Amino acid sequence: MLIALYTGMRRSEILRLEWEDIDFEHAFIHIRGPKGGQDQKIPLNDAARQVFEKLPRTHELIFPGLHGLRTGIYHAIGNIKKKAGLPADFRPLHGLRHHYASMLASSGKVDMYVLQKLLTHKSPTMTQRYAHLRDEALRKASHLAGEIVNQIIKKEEKKDVANHH
Q1: In 3D, which of 38, 13, 30, 17 has the Cα closest to residue 123?
Q2: How far, in Å, CA of 101 to CA of 78, rounded?
Q3: In angstroms, how far apart are the furthest CA atoms of the chain?
Q4: What proportions of the chain, in percent to the nearest 5, are helix, strand and coil?
Q5: CA angle (135 as vertex; 130, 141 as ends), nearest 5
Q6: Mean pLDDT across the stretch 6-25?
Q7: Over 90: is that where the pLDDT of 17 sits?
Q8: Of 162, 103, 157, which is closest to residue 133 (Cα–Cα)?
C-alpha cells in the first residue's frame, strides 16, 4: 500500500513488479504492460526506494503470492480497511493512486503534463480530472500574493504616518 501511495502505480502494475524492474542505480521503476499498453518508466523516489530496500528478495516478483503471481489480496486489504475504519466499498490501492494524484495536483508544484507522465496516462484527458485541484492551488497562491502586497502597503503607510508625526 505504501508503494501505491509513494508511486501512484496501479494495483496490477505493483503486483506484477519484479526485482529486475527496479533500477536502483538510475532511480527508475520499469512498468511492464501498463493499462495504456506501452511499457513505461517512472522515477523511483527515496520513500519508495526505502520500502523496496527493506523487502526480502525471496522471489523474482517483489510481492509474490503463495504460488507466484499474487492475485488475491482482498483478505489482507479487508483487514486493513476494517482496522482503519474505511468504508467497505473503498478500493485502497486505487484510492491511494487517486490520493497520490490529488496530492501532487493540489500542491501547485506539479503541472498536468508531468502528472500525466507520472500516472502513465495515455492521454491528458484522464489527468484533467485533477486540474480543478491545481486551479484551487493557483487561486490560493494568487490570493496569498495579494495578502503579502497588502501587508507591505500597510507597513509602508504606518511608516509614513509615524514619520509625519
Answers
A1: 38
A2: 23
A3: 85
A4: 60, 10, 30
A5: 135
A6: 92
A7: yes
A8: 103
Average pLDDT over residues 64-75: 62
The string of DSSP letters for 59-121 reads: SSBSSEETTEE----HHHHHHHHHHHT--TT--HHHHHHHHHHHHHHHHTSS-HHHHHHHHT-
Band of residue 25 on the pLDDT scale cut at 50, 70, 90 = very high
- For 35-49, the pLDDT digits (tens) are 767 888 999 999 999
CATH class entry, domain 2-164: mainly alpha
Task: Please answer whether residues 9 and 97 qualify as being in contact, where contact means their C-beta atoms are separated by less than 8 angstroms.
Answer: yes
d(C-alpha 98, C-alpha 59), whole Å: 29
Going from N- to C-terminal start, the domains of the chain cover 2-164
**End-to-end Cα spacing for the chain:** 65
- Supply the pTM of this predicted model: 0.69
